[in-house]
Design brief:
By secondary structure, this protein is α+β, with helices and mostly antiparallel strands.
Length: 272
């Protein structure tokens, strides 16, 4: 069994892991609405992996509302389900949901997470994004090797093959009324050095948008069909790297350390 040092920092634990982004033609990954979108999705994942909300990028906790129960009827500007997981759940919350499953204590992650912006459209009150999320090349420590993250509690997602490691996010953002544009956000760093959320605000998000279109889903006032979700997930499967067979092979434990690719788009090596 491999021994993990007990004094590792967050950077140490994520040193073998990177985010890799692509987008549909015409979507600028480096400027405008794509910047807070990238920062939000990466922050959400990092906070989940570390089980620490403060591990998210600067500005996340200010820009993202707290989770709310589906039955919370207080004023909101997105469907109720988009506030149930707008922030990731921490270990103490997952303990209540999965009392018989152990925590992942080492918090070391490897490989690559692939994001693809499927659509990014200006709507009344802000911007709407649909985001492909490929988890099929992400691993975590196991007793004698590395196992897919989809085996962790809270990560399983829909069991349907061959796309169980592909999620489709639905994210609603409010744009700032005014303000100077920040410099294009690309570079060698795996994370931003400053607050790239600026005055953008996340109104709500569904990390797995299957739920918003499920037949008979309670609490939804957003009119999508399940066929819309299936169509988007197929589009994601077509656009994300590696073929179906390779992705399915990636759903099994491995003995060698997963390959990490450079961060794309990455972040500048200077603060905003």
């Amino acid at each position: 069994m491999r021994q993990i040092p007990s004094n590792e920092t967050q950077s140490d634990k994520l040193s073998g892991f990177r985010f890799r982004w692509t987008a549909e033609p015409g979507i600028d990954l480096y400027s405008g609405a794509a910047v807070p979108l990238r920062a939000y999705a990466e922050s959400w994942r990092v906070a989940q992996m570390m089980s620490d909300m403060s591990a998210a990028y600067p500005g996340f906790e200010r820009s993202v509302p707290a989770n709310r129960e589906l039955t919370d009827h207080s004023p909101r500007d997105v469907p109720a389900y988009m506030l149930t997981s707008v922030r990731p759940y921490m270990d103490d919350e997952l303990d209540e949901v999965y009392p018989d499953q152990p925590r992942y204590e080492s918090k070391r992650f490897y490989g690559n997470e692939y994001f693809h912006i499927l659509s990014l459209d200006e709507v009344d009150g802000g911007w709407r994004a649909y985001l492909c999320d490929g988890l099929f090349d992400m691993y975590r420590d196991d007793a004698d090797g590395y196992s897919p993250v989809t085996g962790l509690r809270g990560w399983a997602g829909p069991p349907k093959e061959p796309m169980k490691a592909i999620r489709v996010w639905h994210i609603e953002m409010a744009a700032p009324e005014s303000g100077a544009a920040i410099a294009p956000q690309r570079g060698p760093n795996p994370a931003p050095m400053g607050d790239v959320f600026s005055s953008w605000r996340i109104r709500g998000a569904a990390p797995d948008s299957k739920w918003e279109s499920a037949p008979g889903f309670g609490g939804s006032d957003y009119h999508e069909t399940f066929a819309d979700f299936e169509r988007r997930r197929q589009q994601c499967s077509d656009r994300l790297p590696d073929g179906r067979d390779v992705r399915n092979a990636g759903g099994r434990p491995i003995n060698t350390k997963p390959d990490m690719q450079p961060a794309v788009s990455g972040w500048p090596d200077n603060a905003v």
